[in-house]
Amino acid sequence: MAETAKTYPPSDDMAACAHVDASRYDAMYAASLNDADAFWAEQAGRIDWIKKPTQIKDVDFTLGNVSINWYADGQLNVSANCIDRHLETRGDQTAIIWEPDSPDEAAQHISYRDLHAGTCKMANILRDLGVGKGDRVIIYLPMIPEAAYAMLACARIGAIHSIVFAGFSPDALAARVQGSDAKVVITADEAPRGGRNTPLKANADKALANCDASVKCLTVRRTGGDVAWDDARDVDYTALAKEASDTCEPAVMDAEDPLFILYTSGSTGMPKGVVHTTGGYLVYAALTHETTFDYKDGDIYWCTADVGWVTGHSYIVYGPLANGATTLMFEGVPTYPDASRFWQVCEKHKVNQFYTAPTALRALMGQGNDFVTKCDLSDLRILGTVGEPINPEAWNWYNEVVGGGRCPIVDTWWQTETGGHLMTPLPGAHAMKPGSAMKPFFGVQPVILEPTTAEVITENPAEGVLCIADSWPGQMRTVWGDHERFEKTYFSDYPGYYFTGDGAKRDADGDYWITGRVDDVINVSGHRMGTAEVESALVAHPKVAESAVVGYPHDIKGQGIYCYVTLMGGEAPSDALRKELETWVRSEIGPIAKPDLIQWAPGLPKTRSGKIMRRILRKIAENDYGALGDTSTLADPSVVDDLIENRMNR
Ligand code: 6R9
């Protein structure tokens, strides 16, 4: 990201009113490092414990021995924290504002009391299906209130949920049902999005055909559309919810019992199940939600993410509800019915905090300012971004056109693995620099290492790989079913540190700038994807012999998917085959993985030992083939000329 000279200090008003101003940040940050146990023991007090923890932090980052425990002897229930404890004081307050896909359908205001009833009903239905403590439940739902009920219902009975984004294909769903050995899949008949209905139940049917016959399918009637029904396996949520009891005793959970698994992409192999646990995760989600967005009682807060991603977990459901907030849940897309939808929803519900992804901003920016300026956005106070680096043009547009120059922008850098924000400016404490994630959150110790020597760079400015020196309560605990993979992925390249997979710069002022992934993970419209996943989908096609996939700069998506494909002997390239491969990848993984560019590659640049030299492929995809660097170790340097000659991104 280009560093711009301009900085935007917090306004006097913001500094005076915010939970955290500059001096409080300095004091709290110092306290969080000087005596982590004392700091996090105090922060534990923001949630309700059945048994208050006496052990706070117990962490080892040593390879072969990695173990991460927070509040280990504490006991609590997440759903009781997000619902029950608010009933007395805010039973009638809106917990969730639900805004449907179509503006013609009425929004719903779900009070904390309604949320309690909905969650308990779902919990009782799951219990009746035989789901208990520690069992896994897959949630494959649109952005409807039942998605929140389902998450909180699992938490209530101690089951572990794993949400699969509703845009994922039946194959991806099946892999997650099998990988987590789930007992139940919760889905809906159809998912309306942007005026079109995705047949979710039909997708689930296809997925379940390849799963153990004992897996039950619980279906929410969202549209009332026709679905196939198998009496032995299918259960109708909407019918059962009418009769189900609306009370359900929350289970007593240990702080380190798993709360959820969320599959995410890495640089090698298939997606891994990131495991988050109960106590530390909730404390961290609640604290970051309140601090980063300066959330205050009565505010209307909107995060536009999908609950299928970690942002939806921490900042639509768990963080806001633990804080007794009013959180908006939106079923639709930013451009339906037109590019004004986000801003109309902000106006309609008087949104105070608005949190979205740079890719959405870039797409909307291109549609012109009228879509924004015709709406009354005077209630907006804080803006946020997440998912990828934000370019200064998009930042400036967000600041000026959406925020009217009055709203701080929190550029929150974090990951599925981190559970909550690790770096962000705080609205009342820090100056903002467009594109900079600025400062570490409490308890977070970022370090920049020289990539090859693994030496810590202490002076400023610095550039290298980004690691974190010590644990924070929201950190993932393991990879589901594969602790060795957890250690290898995050703790082996830079021993003693958590390796983020991102590169970063620290400027002369000591502020952080994320430069993007340093591994084979690409970020497409804010969605994380392993190039290996797309490659394995491509080579599963009978006509494909080999493929290599890299990212390239894309104006709207941030990164696009560039595929080099070598066909089987005797197969001829054609536009029809290109289309067929695009559709193939879509159906293997999901629409978000659809290739942007496919180049026919008679050969791929390989070393003599057979390793594909991705560095070269990346350069060609970036249309920067003048700077290929050393190609002398290639087995056949001539393949490079052909690839350059026929490059797709000109
Ligand atoms: C929360 C989330 C994580 C990766 C991360 C980084 C990129 C996220 C960012 C950002 C620059 C930001 N990323 N936020 N890069 N600035 N504010 O997005 O989780 O889907 O796991 O992606 O996204 O590369 O490593 P996840």
Automatic annotation (TrEMBL):
AMP-dependent synthetase/ligase domain ranges (all copies): 84-471
GO terms assigned for molecular function: acetate-CoA ligase activity; AMP binding; ATP binding; metal ion binding
Record domain AMP-binding enzyme C-terminal: where: 533-611
Domain Acetyl-coenzyme A synthetase N-terminal: 25-82
Function, as annotated: Catalyzes the conversion of acetate into acetyl-CoA (AcCoA), an essential intermediate at the junction of anabolic and catabolic pathways. AcsA undergoes a two-step reaction. In the first half reaction, AcsA combines acetate with ATP to form acetyl-adenylate (AcAMP) intermediate. In the second half reaction, it can then transfer the acetyl group from AcAMP to the sulfhydryl group of CoA, forming the product AcCoA.
Cofactor(s) this protein cannot do without: Mg(2+)
Cellular component per GO, a single term: cytosol
Family statement: Belongs to the ATP-dependent AMP-binding enzyme family.
Organism expressing this protein natively: Sulfitobacter albidus
NCBIfam families: Ac_CoA_lig_AcsA, PRK00174.1
Residues annotated for Mg(2+) binding in this entry: 539, 541, 544
The protein's name in its UniProt record: Acetyl-coenzyme A synthetase
Reactions accelerated catalytically: acetate + ATP + CoA = acetyl-CoA + AMP + diphosphate
Residues with the N6-acetyllysine modification: 611
